[in-house]
Design a protein that fits this description.
Layout: H1 9-33, E1 39-40, E2 47-48, H2 50-66, E3 71-74, E4 78-79, E5 88-96, H3 98-103, E6 109-116, E7 119-126, E8 133-137, E9 141-144, E10 147-148, E11 161-163, H4 170-183, E12 189-191, H5 196-205, E13 210-213, H6 218-230, E14 234-236, E15 248-251, H7 253-265
Helix pairs in contact: 1-2, 5-6
Bound molecules: L-MYO-inositol-1-phosphate.
Length: 272
Amino acid sequence: MNIPGKSTPEELLKIAVRIAREAAGTARRMRADGVTDVQTKSTDTDVVTAADRAVERQVVAALRAERPADGVLGEEYGDSARTAPGPVRWILDPIDGTVNYLYGLPQYAVSLAAEVDGVVVAGVVHNPATGAEWTATLGGGAWRGDRRLHGSARGTLDQALVGTGFGYDPARRAHQATVLAGLITRVRDIRRFGAASLDLCMLAEGQLDAYFEKGLSPWDHAAGGLLVTEAGLRVGGLSGRPADERMYLAAPPALFDPLHAALVELDADGGP
Ligand code: LIP
C-alpha cells in the first residue's frame, strides 16, 4: 500500500495506467455485448450507459483498495467521500465520448488523472476500441507509448486544423454554431470527434493544430490537459481567465493569440 503524499508522479502514473487498462477491458467487453440501460442526464441527448457506471465503479473500487486515503472525482458518481483526506485526488471520466460509445464509433476513452494538492501530476487517456494510449507526468513529458509528443508548430490561423465540440443544450448549441460560422472561414478546417480527452491527445500529437470548447468538465480535460502542456502547448481561457467550463482553449504558443482574438471577437465563451 502506498503512503499518501509520498508517491511520485511516476508511481501515480503506473497505478493510473494499470487501472485504466483494466477499465478499458470492461468498456470494450460491455460494448461487444451490446450497450444497455441507456439513460439521459441534462438533456435527451446527454446519455449515460450501464458501462459508464460500471467502469466508474470498477476504477473507484480499484483505487480504494490500493490508496484508501485518496479522493476520487468521477463524472457519474461525483466526489467520493473519504474519512482522512490525503493530498491525492483522482479525476475520472469512465467513458469520455459516450455518444460515440453508444453508436459503436471507435472514438471514446477512459481518462484518469492524479492531482496532488490540486495540481494534476499524472494522467493517462486510453482508447478501449483501438488500444491507443497517451500518458504524461508533470515535468516528465507527454508520450504515446515510447514516442515523446511535441504538438504542432503551426503559427498561422488560416492553416490551422482546429478541434472543437458542442454541448447538449440546444440554446448553447445555437450559440456555438454561430461562433463556428464566424471561425470556419478563418482556419484550414474544423474537426469534431466527440471526446475531449482524445481531442487533447490528438493535439499533443500534432494531429490537430488547436482545440477549443465551451462547457468541459474537469474529468474531460484533467489528463488530456497535462498531455497538452507537457507537449509544449499553451492552455487558457479567454480574456485572462483560466481554462475552465467557460472556455478551454489549447494551442501552440504562436497560434494561441490569433485564435484567442478570433474567439473573443466571436464571444465564444459567452451565451448560455
Ligand atoms: C463529451 C466531451 C466532448 C463534448 C461532448 C461530450 P461525454 O463528454 O468529451 O468534448 O463535445 O458533447 O460532452 O459526455 O461523452 O463524457
